[in-house]
From TrEMBL:
Localization: Cytoplasm
UniProt GO cellular component terms: cytoplasm
Top-level taxonomy: Bacteria, Pseudomonadati, Pseudomonadota, Betaproteobacteria, Burkholderiales
The protein's name: Dihydrolipoyl dehydrogenase
An example Gene Ontology biological process: 2-oxoglutarate metabolic process
């Protein structure tokens, strides 16, 4: 007889494993289906984010930043260092150790919350008297289980370019780019999005000459224009060669590397020869062989599973979250949706304000924002006020040799409600959380301006930018 569960989650990435834990906390019997295998061939929880995404990339960013600081910036502090070298194998081993620690941590959480891990590929089969039948196919055995409720959380995979085969050695997506065994002398990156900029930064810091080719006519088009302009200037100063408005016509690979033929923004034919190439042109939902059609579900024209504001599909008790549904492909968005769905199943009334989901790019300096950009507010015809304050006027930033960048606060011209906050600077990923809290509670810029911030701290820049909305910054 098939095992029966109140909830079966398909996928154990950030959305899936968090959904499973929250459902278990609420008293439901829960199983989670996951087939991911690490490079050692071992089954692992955590999905793309923990295994080949957010966590390992941040580990490499930290290692490469330490290397750059010691080699190029220690002298500014009066520290003399010579003959600085980096052991790439050890850097990668450190990254892998962090990944293993995190994925094993999820296994512990599953045991703690009495969640059953169904090891294999999950496929929707049919409805039955108790709910829905799901077949799980593993390496050693297969089984069928029944779920009263299903949460599809299968995430996304890297989009590849037609005619550009990815071997993750010479031509790599995000997975291969995390595991280069040597530093490429010349590295090409197709796509100036989050992944391209972060991984391009990693390998530039340890010695690669990096060229980034972006098809869009503007750099970081999703970000506030002033942030994008500052980021482009700072990244170029560091040595990232970024070209926008590029049309790639041909990519040729051989044992010696990769040759890219492209037309630049001025319509001139160009050729780029590199040792290795990273393809980072977005991601596509993972819905392959899920059996959606067996239940009468289908994806939309972009490959996403249609859902409502509470992630319900058109079928009763079937939900989808994270990268397989509309909205930004962000791990923390998936986590919030996982919690929301578990609480909906339990009869609660949660909600998500998607306007309050922050974005972060972990370059140096970091880039983070939440809410509306200035160009969006102009397009909407909404009257607004802006306050901006630079890190160079902040004592803590100067002491940390991190004075690049600024914070910008956008507020409604009449009500002073905060509409958007944009940061480029050290620890922007942490500083943006204050803005998220403020916007969730519909705070005014005056509210942040009147809150006492510790001195000296980077958080003071947020306060000064908020004060700047009313032209009353105190230190400028």
């Amino acid at each position: 007889m098939a095992k029966e569960f109140d909830v079966v989650v398909i996928g154990a990435g950030p959305g899936g494993y968090i959904a499973a834990i929250r459902a278990a906390q609420l008293g439901m019997s829960v199983a989670c289906v996951e087939k991911w295998k690490n490079p050692k061939g071992e089954l692992a929880l955590g999905g793309t984010c923990l295994n080949v995404g957010c966590i390992p990339s941040k580990a490499l960013l930290a290692s490469s930043e330490e290397f750059e600081k010691i080699g190029h910036h220690a002298k500014d502090h009066g520290i003399s260092v010579s003959d600085v070298k980096i052991d790439i194998a050890k850097m990668l081993a450190r990254k892998d150790g962090i990944v293993t620690k995190m994925t094993k941590g999820i296994e512990f959480l599953f045991r703690k919350n009495k969640i059953t891990w169904l090891k294999g590929h999950g496929k929707l089969v049919a409805t039955n008297d108790s709910g829905y039948q799901i077949d799980v196919t593993g390496d050693d055995a297969s089984e069928s289980v029944t779920a009263k409720h299903i949460i599809i959380a299968t995430g996304s995979k890297a989009r590849h370019l037609p005619g550009v085969p990815v071997d993750n050695k010479i031509v790599a997506d995000n997975e291969g780019a995390l595991n280069f065994d040597t530093v490429p002398k010349k590295l090409g990156v197709i796509g100036a999005g989050v992944i391209g900029l972060e991984l391009g930064s990693v390998w530039r810091r340890v010695g690669s000459e990096v060229t980034v080719l972006e098809a869009m006519p503007t750099f970081l088009g999703a970000a506030d224009e002033s942030i994008a302009k500052e980021a482009g200037k700072l990244l170029a100063k560091q040595g990232l060669n970024i070209h926008v408005g590029v049309n790639i016509s041909k990519v040729t690979t051989d044992k010696n590397g990769v040759t890219l033929a492209y037309t630049d923004k001025d319509g001139k034919d160009q050729t780029l020869v590199v040792d290795r190439l990273i393809v980072s042109v977005g991601r596509v939902p993972n819905t392959d062989d899920l059996g959606l059609g067996n239940l009468g579900l289908a994806v939309d024209e972009r490959g996403f599973i249609p859902v409502d504001d509470h992630c319900r599909t058109k079928l009763p008790n079937v939900y989808a979250i994270g990268d397989v549904v509309r909205g930004p492909m962000l791990a923390h968005k998936a986590e919030d949706e996982g919690v929301m769905v578990a609480e909906v199943i339990a009869g609660q009334k949660p909600h998500i304000d998607y306007n309050c989901i922050p974005w972060v790019i972990y370059t140096a300096p970091e880039i983070a924002w939440v809410g509306k950009t200035e160009q969006q507010l102009k397009a909407e015809g909404r009257a607004y006020k802006a306050g901006q304050f630079p890190f160079m006027a902040n004592g803590r930033a100067l002491g940390m040799a991190a004075s690049d960048g600024f914070v910008k606060v956008l507020a409604d011209a009449a009500t002073d409600e905060i509409l958007g906050v944009h940061i480029i600077g050290l620890n922007a990923s942490d500083l943006i959380a204050e803005a998220v809290v403020a916007m969730e509670f519909k705070a005014a810029s005056e509210d942040i301006g009147r809150i006492c911030h510790p001195h000296p701290s980077l958080s003071e820049v947020m306060r000064e930018a908020a004060l700047g909305v009313e032209k009353r910054s105190l230190n400028m």
